[in-house]
Design a protein that fits this description.
Blueprint lengths: L10 H22 L5 H16 L16 E12 L5 E14 L4 E8 L9 E10 L6 E9 L10 E12 L2 E10 L5 E11 L7
Antiparallel strand pairs: 1-2, 1-8, 2-3, 3-4, 4-5, 5-6, 6-7, 7-8
Helix pairs in contact: 1-2
Length: 203
């Protein structure tokens, strides 16, 4: 398996699971005289759990991260210093789509202007997940690449999001900050609410 494939599993649970799987397969081989590879079967089971079963009980207890997946909508509050030295600020509707399974978390984002025009798509490159200091929430930190837009007159650029995932009664929130390497550099705040599991977009 590729590096960090199992990074979201509880290590102790993963070890116990592998041992149990292996013992069951060895017992089945001896009892029925099967000719199967223990390593191949265990690997296939882990792939099945990571791809399809990870968000369902009891499999979700195998992971130390929460289920972040879904569509989040809210606002992006931006600011930057213009070429004339003036502080420019504004608020745009913002959408984040979190695609997650047991071994991978990717985030796609775009903003929507007042006239309904969508920005180009930003896609996460790398992901760091950690619990907050009080162990109550999660923090997602990642870089992203925006492909830019010829029509809207801006070139490709990188940025960084630092988001706190807050889960309460019947709600999930993403709040945090972002900054980019655009010229002039933009930065700001994000406040997003979970809407549904629909990850479709037009890009």
């Amino acid at each position: 398996m590729k590096q960090d494939y199992l990074k979201y599993y509880h290590p102790s649970v993963l070890i116990v699971l592998i041992i149990v799987f292996a013992m069951c397969i060895i017992f089945a081989k001896d009892y029925w005289g099967l000719s199967i590879s223990v390593v191949s079967i265990v690997t296939a089971l882990l792939i099945l759990i990571s791809t399809y079963l990870w968000k369902f009980k009891p499999f979700i207890w195998m992971f130390w991260v929460d289920d972040f997946s879904g569509r989040y909508e809210g606002v992006l509050k931006y600011k930057y210093i213009s070429v004339n030295g003036n502080l420019e600020t504004g608020v745009l509707k913002h959408v984040k789509l979190i695609n997650q399974n047991g071994n991978r978390i990717t985030i796609s984002s775009f903003t929507i202007k007042d006239n309904g025009e969508k920005s180009s798509l930003s896609v996460s490159k790398g992901m760091h997940v950690e619990k907050t200091e009080d162990e109550q929430h999660f923090r997602l930190i990642y870089n992203y690449l925006n492909g830019g837009s010829v029509e809207q007159g801006f070139s490709p650029h990188y940025g960084t999001d630092e988001l706190k995932f807050i889960k309460g009664d019947n709600k999930k929130l993403l709040v945090g900050n972002y900054y980019t390497n655009r010229t002039p550099q933009t930065r700001g705040e994000l406040e997003l609410n979970w809407v549904n599991h629909n990850l479709n977009h037009e890009f």
